[in-house]
Structures are given as structure tokens and as C-alpha cells.
Design a protein that fits this description.
The chain has helices at 2-5, 13-18, 20-28, 35-75, 79-115, 153-160, 165-171, 181-200, 214-219, 245-250, 307-325, 370-376, 400-410, 424-427; strands spanning 135-139, 163-164, 178-179, 204-206, 211-212, 232-233, 238-240, 256-258, 264-273, 292-302, 329-333, 345-353, 358-369, 379-381, 387-389, 391-399, 412-413, 416-418, 431-432. The chain is α+β, with helices and mostly antiparallel strands and 434 residues long. The structure holds one RNA strand of 88 nucleotides.
Length: 434
RNA sequence: AGAGGAGUGGCAGAGUGGUCGAAUGCGGCGGUCUUGAAAACCGUUGUACCGCGAGGUACCGGGGGUUCGAAUCCCUCCUCCUCUGCCA
């Protein structure tokens, strides 16, 4: 009954019904101890929805019949009888409107419950509360030694005059730096390098819009919960993208893919805009957190049975990039408590910054299974002609500023900053010097 | 941005208040014929939800309204086309 009940669920009630115990157990990995209550609420509300729909449908059926009857009577010229029937039909209409209102109420409630249930974690996801419980699945055996007099990148960028935060402050505000000279050139080089690598791996390149509409925000799950994270152009009700995932994944909103065209692989470079309200502090100095930054994003749409193969492939891809850049890194499997709302399994890549003595997150690779696809109505048609939800995946490959920070800090020498070899064909110089 | 036109099933395209989920053509699928193919002919062919089923409901760009009844009338928004203007 689309007029009242066109909902964008995330998990589907039928799915929950069929897997209640499993879902309950898995969702508890996120620390949602009372999730079972919520699921029960959803199921009983879903029952109520069904029975209400039945009574609505039958009322509408009566009403339709009555209307047809009036039509017949009018044709036969039986005006008085028609008038009488009209009164009855009007009653039916009022009744169906009433039930319809009730129905929308139930739908609303159901939707808001469903919106608040995050994706079901994959079985390999460790239970846990915070980032401390993330599982380190790989780490380079040795961390680089801290050289004598090594400087953090916020000092280096001033020394070499390649990034200017003060200028950004003047022109825009905090978190909007200017990249200059070799810094600007290096950013552009990395973008090209990352895009070329993705193209070699079979990703189709796209240049995506940077402003998206509300539907797209809902499609990938930034709305309704995280609107505070996005810049909102209210005059036109458009949102500045926080990641290329939003426009690229939404290319496939309301799409039915032929099974043999899978997987769909896209890559795009975009600036990303994040308000980062309330998340500033001493540990986010310099390039560590920005309102605008560049990122190359890879996105895959995959068959449900092959999505974890695809996830592994993406993880490999990202790992290769970091290796080629020669940066010390580790790979984390996020625990339930740290896992994003819409993700079933996420691997984070962190690069070690010797000068800051900390790990910097430079990529996040996730499988969303059907969670986004359900909102997107993204399905495939199999050989049996049935339409089924697809799996969506994405990953940063890579986020630029922190990679830049890591290169600056790890590759500093007394006579300049060494450019990783793979980037030299793009930069045209092999060292950043004074 | 202004003026005008238009949005109907996979596509094309009829339908301007009542048995219209929607003619017709093309395409798709199945069949007849054929050694095979084409042609011709016959049949079939949207989606979602509810129901064990029979069946029911909803959907003609989106939303709202008028009416007993809307693809059809009204309001509003969106998109596309043409002309004019502007602009990288």
C-alpha cells in the first residue's frame, strides 16, 4: 500500500522474524543489551501493521464496490438510489481515511524503531565497547625509530611552507587549509596515483556531484541520524558530501542489476566535507582532522554470496597502496562497539606517525551487506528471475591528509622530505626541500 | 532566470471523471510451422504489500486536494524539451 506505507527500512521485519535469535546475539556485540526488547517491539508492531492493512484493504474494497455501483445506477438513470448510495460510500471513505491515518502512525513508529537498529555485525566481529577492543589483524613487525629532532607535520608544513592553516582561517575558518607549492602538487599526485591504481584494479572512475539531495542522504544512511555531520545548503536543501560513498553508492538507488553484470566497481576522487561538531581537541592538530579533505573512494556492489570475497579484495587493494607508499601500518577489525551504524564488518587501516607517536586512521573498508541496499532498493535479478537485495561495500583508498602527514613525518631527513618512489612520476620531484 | 510545451507499463504511444492496471505497436518469453533460422500465426508478458488460497489493495513524475468515484479536474514541487536571457 505505497500511498501510506512506503518505508525505507534498514533491516527488514521479515528478516528479523526469521533470524531473531541470531540477530539478537550478534547485535549484543555492539553492547546493545536490551536489543531483544526492541526486536520484539518491531515484530509486534509489524503484526499490527499487517492486521491494520487487512482492515484497510477490505474497507477500500467495499468503498470501491460502492463507487462502481453508483456508477451503474447513474447510467441507468436511477438518481435517487444513487444519492442514497453516495451517503454510504462517503461513510466508507471516512472510515478508510481513519484507518489510513492509524496505519501511517504505525508505519512511522515502525520506521523509527527500525532506523534505530544498527546493522547486524558479521560473525567475525569481536564484541567490545570501544576502540580498545578492536582486533589487530596485522601490524608491521617494527615501528620506525624516532629520529633525533624529528618534528610533527604541523611544524614541517610551516618550515617547508607547503600547507597554510592561517590563510585557510582567514578565507574560510578552522579546518580548511590551503595546500601550497609542493604540498599542493603532492596532493594532486596522490589523487592521480590512487585513481590509476584503482583503475588498474578494475574500478570505473567517476566524478561525482559534491552536493546531494535528501533521498541520497537517506540512501546511504547519513540521514536521518547524522545530519549534524553534514553541511546543509538549506536554500536548496542539498548536503555537502561527507564522503564519495554517498553519491557513488546512490548512483545505484532504485536499480535492478542483471546478475551477470556483477560486481559493479567504481572509484571516485572527491573533497569530503565534515562539520565535526564538538570533536576538536589537542589530539586533532594539524592535518589530523579537517572540515574539508580529499579522498579517493572505492565502491563495490556485489552478489550477496561474494561480498566477503570482495571485501578481502578491497582490503588487499588498500594494503598494497600503503605498502607502495612505504608507510608503517596496521589493520584492525573493528569491534562491535566501534563498528559504524550501517556496517556489518569494517577493517580500519592505520598508519604510524613516528613523530606524533600515534596511529592515524587512513582508511576504513566496510561491507554493509543488504543494510544500505534495502534503503536504496538496490537489487539484482537472478537466473530464477527473483529480485534480491545486493550487498554494498566501500573503502577509502585513501584519505589524503593523514597520508600526507605520515609521509612528512616518517620521511623527514635533515635535507628534505623524501617522496615515495611510486609518487615521483606524478610529482616530478623526489624531495621536498627548503 | 523568463515564456511555452511535456512527463503513462522495458521502449514507443492511446486514453480528458465511472467495469482503466490501462488500447495498440515494438521488444521479451513460450508454442505452431521449418532440416535449422527468418517470416507468419497463436498464447503470454509491470511492481509492491496483505492473504494458506480464492483473491484483495496500492501504484499512470513526487506530494496534497476536489469527488461516491481521478491517469483524466485543482494546487504544489521535481524533471525533461523548445525559444529568450545569463554564465564557466
Amino acid at each position: 500500500m505505497p500511498c501510506f506505507f512506503n518505508s525505507n527500512n534498514m533491516l527488514q521485519p521479515a528478516e528479523i522474524r526469521a533470524n531473531k535469535d541470531l540477530f539478537t546475539e550478534r547485535l549484543k556485540k555492539r553492547g546493545l543489551e536490551d536489543i531483544e526488547l526492541t526486536l520484539n517491539q518491531i515484530l509486534s508492531l509489524d503484526d499490527e501493521r499487517k492486521s491494520t492493512q487487512q482492515s484497510l484493504d477490505s474497507t477500500l474494497a467495499e468503498s470501491n464496490n460502492a463507487a462502481k455501483e453508483i456508477g451503474m445506477l447513474m447510467k441507468q438513470g436511477k438518481k435517487e438510489e444513487a444519492e442514497q448510495a453516495k451517503a454510504k460510500a462517503a461513510e466508507l471513505r471516512d472510515k478508510s481515511k481513519e484507518i489510513g491515518t492509524k496505519m501511517s502512525g504505525i508505519e512511522e513508529e515502525l520506521k523509527s524503531l527500525l532506523y534505530n537498529v544498527p546493522n547486524v555485525p558479521h560473525e567475525s566481529v569481536p564484541a567490545g565497547q570501544s576502540e580498545d577492543d578492536n582486533e589487530v589483524v596485522f601490524q608491521v613487525p617494527e615501528l620506525p625509530e624516532i629520529a633525533e629532532g624529528a618534528k610533527p607535520h604541523w611544524d614541517l608544513i610551516k618550515e617547508y611552507d607547503i600547507i597554510d592553516f592561517d590563510l585557510g582561517n582567514k578565507v574560510s575558518g578552522a579546518g580548511f587549509p590551503f595546500y601550497k607549492k609542493q604540498g599542493a602538487r603532492l596532493i594532486r599526485s596522490m589523487i592521480n596515483f590512487f585513481l590509476d591504481e584503482a583503475a588498474d584494479a578494475g574500478y570505473i572512475e567517476v566524478q561525482a556531484p559534491l552536493l546531494v539531495n535528501e533521498d541520497s542522504g537517506y540512501g546511504t544512511g547519513q540521514l536521518p541520524d547524522k545530519e549534524g555531520q553534514m553541511y546543509h545548503a538549506t536554500a536548496d536543501n542539498l548536503f555537502l558530501i561527507p564522503t564519495a560513498e554517498v553519491p557513488i553508492t546512490n548512483m545505484y538507488r532504485d536499480v535492478i542489476v542483471d546478475e551477470n553484470q556483477l560486481p559493479l566497481k567504481n572509484v571516485g576522487h572527491t573533497p569530503c566535507f565534515r562539520r565535526e561538531a564538538g570533536s576538536w581537541g589537542a589530539h586533532v592538530r594539524g592535518l589530523n582532522r579537517l572540515h574539508q579533505f580529499d579522498k579517493v573512494e572505492i565502491v563495490q556492489i556485489q552478489h550477496p554470496e561474494k561480498s566477503y570475497e570482495a571485501l578481502d579484495e578491497m582490503v588487499k587493494h588498500v594494503e598494497e597502496l600503503i605498502k607502495k607508499l612505504g608507510l608503517p601500518y596496521r589493520i584492525l577489525r573493528l569491534c562491535g562497539g566501534d563498528l559504524g551504524f550501517t556496517s556489518a564488518l569494517t577493517y580500519d587501516f592505520e598508519v604510524y606517525s613516528a613523530a606524533q607517536k600515534r596511529w592515524l586512521e587512513v582508511s576504513s573498508v566496510s561491507n554493509f551487506e543488504t543494510y544500505q541496499a534495502n534503503r536504496l532498493k538496490l537489487r539484482y535479478k537472478g537466473s530464477d528471475k527473483k529480485k534480491q537485495l545486493l550487498h554494498t561495500l566501500n573503502g577509502s583508498a585513501l584519505a589524503l591528509p593523514r597520508i600526507l602527514a605520515a609521509i612528512l613525518e616518517n620521511n623527514q631527513t635533515p635535507d628534505g622530505i623524501i617522496i615515495p618512489e611510486v609518487l615521483r612520476p606524478y610529482t616530478g620531484f623526489d624531495k621536498i626541500t627548503l
